[in-house]
Design a protein that fits this description.
There is one protein chain. The chain starts with a helix and ends in a 5-residue tail after the last helix. It is an alpha+beta fold. About 35% of the residues lie in helices and about 20% in strands. Helix 14 crosses helix 15 and helix 16 packs antiparallel against helix 17 (about 475-485). The protein is globular, with a radius of gyration of 26 Å. The strands form 8 sheets. Strands 4-3-2-1-5-6 form a 6-stranded mixed beta sheet, sandwiched between helices.
């Protein structure tokens, strides 16, 4: 069935339910960034495969919103369909809520006034409330308030895509495993007690955690229900004297059940969460509540909120676990250093393999997929490698300008001995999660390629060298990374940095580095000791090339004096940065010294694990002009 045929079938279902506009999100029941195939309704209905995007369907028009990471990809994948692309964040492009408000106002304007308010015409917006986060609905209701002459209804109980997706994949649930304390550095009992203390401080007696990485972190458990993310589908109910894990109990081994029992957690089935919350106060008067429940509006779905509201007074605040999880403890920090050594060894071998290919006389060409598979091969040789942390971006030439490009058999192209190859990849280890990007010169480069590569490198070095007072947020530092490009009146349409989990999601909060407003991860969140954040400025010229250089940095204490506490970054990522494209006269002496220091560290930490030939190659390619 073609995309337009699917939309026509959806419109028929909307008509049955008297739905004027239907919203289809990327989310699962937990507002996860990446989702399993069962939840890819927006992809099924649009053909757009990016990890972020929302589709709004109506009789008159069908529109997809996505952000700057996916503009080029979305244009290509929507081509030939009836779907119009709205580039979120661009000047003149309304948000989804602004768009729906304008449609309601337009509808109201076209309805002639009735003699009685009871005869007002209805305008209905529908969606599946189990995949819609609460904050979106609250904001939408606020946007639509005050519109007169029509009744605006929100119907959150409709999974209309499920009705037409006849070959929908099954909901995946895999084995749930214990994550050893030798890696986590803190017991689950300690973490649960910290949450209970935080709840007490917020005057809340109850709490439901629905974000999967928070649950996995809290309980020191891991799963594989979402590709690349070691999490498991679940909800966690916490109160002073009880904790309940709602999951697929058939996937919990006896040993794990004993472990959970020992830390005071008992099990219920995954889908029981809604009835459990709605009936928690059964037997009491409807107006009498069991107590206050803390819910995170950005991660809790609307259906869960409505059921919880039947039994509890709700307190809408960020999960306490988000900040606790974001600041790695001493064990996690030390393990992360070791994980990046392991990952660095694989990266060096991969980069040398590319260099050998570039300098060979063979007429045979590798492809983007060949490069991605070779990097996976090198990583897989480590006994500690547990899998990739996201699908590898191996993008040659013009594909490098597609920020989140993933090669497929249909898009795979040869890597020629000229231009840039951009490789953004990461791995999962018991000792941590990695995320690294290198842009490699495969041969002859244009002057523009060199100019923008050098500007991106300058931004990366300036940010990683920053020293700043405690209390400074990522938004305050973003100019360091973007400044060299801004001087050229250029910019990039994505964040400079995101939080990185510990053997968890490659993207996590609460911090990020972005001067633009970010609702998902607060750019006003102060950076704190133990936070791991990416440093990844970039430049993208559509149809030509892309550049990105990314290292993971750990926030550390730099010093304390009469002027306060000062923090800075320790670069965790260990891999050479290609020096071939650098215009040395464009770098300051401080930037050259920072690059030389970084490369000295790479050589010092990785050489003992490399064979003589590879170690000599590494020493040669990291030699900085001074």
């Amino acid at each position: 069935m073609k995309i337009d045929e699917r939309i026509e079938r959806l419109l028929l279902e909307m008509k049955k339910e008297n739905i004027d506009y239907y919203i289809i999100l990327t989310n699962d029941y937990h507002n996860s960034e990446y989702v399993s195939d069962f939840f890819k309704c927006r992809e099924y209905m649009s053909g757009f495969t990016g990890s972020a995007g929302t589709l709004v369907v109506s009789e008159k028009e069908t529109i997809l919103w996505t952000d700057g990471r996916y503009f080029i990809q979305a244009e290509e994948q929507l081509s030939g369909s009836r779907i119009e692309l709205y580039k979120a964040g661009n000047k003149g492009v309304p948000t989804i809520k602004e768009y729906l408000k304008s449609k309601c106002e337009e509808f109201a304007k076209n309805i002639r006034e009735t003699e009685s308010p009871s005869e007002a015409v209805s305008f209905t917006i529908g969606f599946d409330g189990k995949v819609m986060d609460l904050s979106f609905v609250k904001d939408l209701e606020e946007q639509l308030s005050g519109i007169k002459r029509i009744n605006i209804n929100i119907n959150p109980a409709l999974d209309l895509v499920g009705r037409i997706w006849t070959d929908r994949p099954a909901l995946v649930a895999n084995e749930i495993k214990i994550f050893p304390e030798e890696y986590s550095g803190k017991s689950a009992s300690e973490k649960l007690n910290e949450i209970k203390l935080a709840l007490s401080e917020k005057k809340a007696e109850f709490h439901v955690v629905s974000s999967l990485d928070d649950i996995a972190w809290l309980l020191n458990m891991r799963g594989s229900d979402i590709e690349c993310n070691p999490v498991f589908l679940s909800y966690l109910f916490i109160c002073e004297d009880d904790a309940v894990l709602f999951c697929h109990t058939s996937k919990v081994a006896e040993k794990t059940k004993v472990y959970l029992s020992d830390i005071g957690v008992h099990l219920k089935e995954y889908d029981e969460i809604y009835d459990f919350l709605a009936d928690y106060n059964s037997g009491k008067a409807a107006e009498e509540k069991a107590g206050s429940m803390l819910l995170d509006p950005d991660t809790v779905n609307y259906r869960l909120y409505t059921e919880a509201s039947k039994s509890f007074e709700t307190v809408l605040e960020e999960n306490p676990s988000t900040k606790l999880k974001g600041c790695k403890n001493e064990t996690e920090m030390e393990n992360l250093r070791m994980a990046n050594v392991i990952d660095g060894i694989a990266m060096v071998k991969f980069l040398k393999w590319l260099d050998d290919y570039k300098n060979s006389n063979s007429e045979e060409l590798i492809t983007e997929i060949d490069a991605a598979e070779k990097l996976l091969e090198f990583r897989s040789k480590s006994s500690e490698f547990l899998g990739i942390s996201f699908e590898t971006i191996s993008a040659y030439g013009a594909h490098g300008a597609i920020v989140h490009y993933e090669p497929t058999p249909e898009t795979d192209i040869p890597v020629e001995r000229k231009g840039f190859l951009l490789v953004d990849s990461g791995a999962q280890y018991y000792k941590g999660t990695t995320d690294i990007t290198r842009t490699i010169a495969m041969g002859e480069l244009t002057e523009d390629m060199k100019k923008y590569y050098t500007a991106v490198l300058k931004g990366n070095l300036r940010l990683s060298s920053a020293i700043f007072p405690k209390g400074v947020a990522g938004a305050n530092l973003d100019i360091l990374a973007r400044g060299p490009l801004w001087q050229l009146q250029k910019d990039y349409n994505h964040g400079t940095g995101h939080g990185i989990g510990y053997y968890l999601n490659v993207h996590e909060g609460p911090q990020n580095i972005n001067w633009k407003i970010s609702k998902r991860y607060g750019n006003s969140e102060p950076l704190a000791v133990g936070m791991v954040t990416s440093d990844e400025p970039g430049f993208y010229l559509e149809g030509e090339f892309g550049v990105r250089i990314e290292n993971d940095v750990l926030t550390v204490l730099k010093g304390e004096n009469e002027d306060g506490t000062f923090l800075g970054f320790e670069v965790l990522t260990l891999a050479p940065i290609d020096l071939t494209p650098v215009i040395w006269e464009d770098l300051t002496s401080e930037e050259i010294e920072a690059l030389a220091d970084y490369h000295r560290t790479v050589v010092e930490k990785l050489s003992p694990y490399l064979d003589n030939e590879t170690a000599e190659w590494l020493k040669k390619v990291t030699c900085v002009q001074q």
